[in-house]
Amino acid sequence: MSAPTAAVAAADSAAASGAEAPPVFSVDGLWKVFGPRADRVPADPALASLDAAELRARTGCTAAVRDVSFDVRKGEVFVVMGLSGSGKSTLVRCLTRLIEPTAGRIVIDGEDVRAMDKARLRELRRHRAAMVFQHFGLLPHRTVLDNVAYGLEIQGMGRAARREKAAEVVAKVGLAGMEHRRPAQLSGGQRQRVGLARALAVDPEVLLFDEPFSALDPLIRRDMQDEVARLHREEGRTMVFITHDLQEALRLGDRIALMRDGRVVQLGTPEEIVGAPADDYVRAFVQDVPREQVLTVRTAMRPASPAERTATGPTVAPGTTVSEAIETVAAAGAPARVLDEGECVGVVDAETLLHVVAGHPTPSDAADRSVAEPGTGGPVDGAAGRPADSGGGAGASTTADGSAVAGSAKAGTSASADEAGEAPAGPAASEESV
Ligand SMILES: Nc1ncnc2c1ncn2[C@@H]1O[C@H](COP(=O)(O)OP(=O)(O)OP(=O)(O)O)[C@@H](O)[C@H]1O
C-alpha cells in the first residue's frame, strides 16, 4: 500500500499477462456438504450426482458447494455471483476455513489451507486474506480511528504506529475529518467505508468481500463500487467479491464465477458471460444486460482486408466497448480499424456493431461455435468442463443439474461469529469463528 506506483505496475502487468499471472488462491474439487455424515456425499458418485431435493431426501444433507474448481489470479477482482442460496458465502468462507470444507483442495500461494493448524489459520485471516462483511460489525464505543486500528492492535502493533497507519487508511477511503466519530454518528455508507478501511489496514494480500454493499441504497452503493474499483486500480490488490447483483458483478469483476445450486455454471470475463452464455440459465440471467456496454470490439470486429490494414481513418483499441465504438464510427462516418499495439487486428463498421446490439451472431461467435462441444448449449469445453475462452485455469462445471435453487433454508448459514451482533468483523471475528 505504501508504494502505489509499484502496485499499479504489478496490477497492470497482472492484467496484461492474463492467464500467466500466478494464482493467489487455487481451488480444486471443493465440496461443502451440511448434514449428517457429510463426507460420504462427495466420496460416493451415486450420492454426489443427486440433485438438491433428492440428496436431502436420501441423506438429510445439503451440498452448498459441489465440486468447484477455479484459480484467483494475482491482482484480479474475482466475483462470485449467484442467486440467494446458490452457495456464494459458503464457498468464500471455505477459502479461509471460516467454514470447514468437506472435500477438495485449497491452496494459497502454494500453501495447503486445509493442512494449516490453528495458528497458521489465524495468521492467514489476520494478514493474508481479510474479510469485509455486509454487517460491518464495528465496535460501537470506539472511534472510527480505533475501529480501523483494531486489526493492527490484534496483530500486536504499538499504539502510535497503528494510529498513524489507521489515519492513513481512513483518509484513503475518504473519511478524513471523521476519525473521532463513533459508528452511530456515521451513515451506512460511511460505516461500510470504516469496515473497508479496517480490512485494508492490515494490508492483506487478498480482500474477501461478502455482499458488502447490499444493505446500502443505490447511490451510496454505486459510490462504494467506485471506491473499490479505485482502490483496485491504484493498488492492484487481489479481491474476491460476492454479490447477487449482476450489474455489480459486471462493473467490478475481471472474471465472474456464476453459481447455481452449489456449482459454478460459468466462469469467465463479463464479456464472455454476456456474449457467450454457457447455458440457458446463464442466458436468462444476462438477457437484460445492455450488450453494447459490456461487449468490446473484440467481439464485434471482422477481419480487415489488405487495403484496410494500411488505411488511415478512425481507430479503436481492442478493449473499446461496442457503445463507444458506435460513437467513433458514427462521428467519422467510416469504419474503424481495431489497433492492438499498433497492429490492425480487425475492423468494426456500422453493420458489425449493430449485429452485437441486436444480439445477432458475430464473427467471433462463429469462431466460438467451431470449438464448442455439440449439445452443451454454449462454448464449454466438454473435456475439461471449462468455458472455451475463459482464459484457462478456471474450472467451470458443466450445466447445473436443473433442480430448483435451494435458497430458502438459510438458517445459521455461516454458523460463524463473524457477523453476529456486535462481534467485530474482520481479523478478530475470523478468529472467533473457528
Ligand atoms: N449451516 C448450514 N446448515 C445447513 N445448510 C446450510 C448452512 N449454511 C448454508 N446452508 C445451505 O447451503 C446453501 C448455500 O448457502 P449460502 O449461504 O452459501 O448461499 P448464498 O449464495 O451465499 O446465499 P445468499 O445470497 O442468500 O447469502 C443454501 O441452500 C443454504 O440453505
TrEMBL record:
Belongs to the ABC transporter superfamily. Pfam families: ABC_tran. Residues 50-286 form the ABC transporter domain. Transmembrane segments: none annotated. Residues 396-434 have a biased composition (Low complexity). InterPro entries: AAA+_ATPase, ABC_osmolyte_uptake_ATP-bind, ABC_transporter-like_ATP-bd, ABC_transporter-like_CS, Gly-betaine_transp_ATP-bd, P-loop_NTPase. This is Glycine betaine/L-proline ABC transporter ATP-binding protein. Residues 360-434 are annotated as: Disordered. GO terms for molecular function: ATP binding. Keywords: ATP-binding, Nucleotide-binding, Transport.
